[in-house]
Design goal:
Layout: E1 5-7, E2 10-13, E3 18-23, E4 33-39, E5 46-52, E6 57-59, E7 67-72, E8 77-82, E9 91-97, E10 110-115
Parallel strand pairs: 2-10
Antiparallel strand pairs: 1-3, 3-8, 4-5, 4-9, 5-6, 7-8, 9-10
Length: 116
């Protein structure tokens, strides 16, 4: 079954950092574009970042300056470096393919919990 697999989530204290990873296969990873989303229970899923084939990155205002998206295309790996975490960042984080030429694939999510 085609899939993306996130990892790296967990508990972290306010002000701390985490690095999320998203691993895909040749059938699932989209070199043209990949994105990170997050979801808090009871709220809409929130787009937070995207990277394209040329490494151009976009960020939601809520994470700009704190989060950095990157990828290793040769290894089909997507990353999200998260710094200065606060309670508003507590959510399930998902990676997703993000290009019209790629099959739509979501990961299963990795939970990030920020506490004081």
């Amino acid at each position: 079954q085609a899939q993306l697999v996130e990892s790296g989530g967990g508990p972290v204290q306010t002000g701390g950092s985490l690095r999320l990873s998203c691993s895909g296969s040749g059938d699932t990873y989209c070199v043209g574009g990949m994105a990170w989303y997050r979801k808090v229970q009871g709220r809409e899923r929130e787009w937070i970042s995207r990277i394209d084939d040329n490494g151009r990155a976009l960020y939601a205002d809520s994470v700009k300056g704190r989060f950095t998206i990157s990828q290793d295309k040769a290894k089909n790996l997507l990353y999200l470096e998260m710094n200065s975490l606060n309670s508003n960042d507590t959510a399930m984080y998902y990676c997703k393919t993000d290009h019209p030429r790629c099959r739509l694939v979501w990961g299963q999510g990795t939970q990030v919990t920020v506490s004081s």
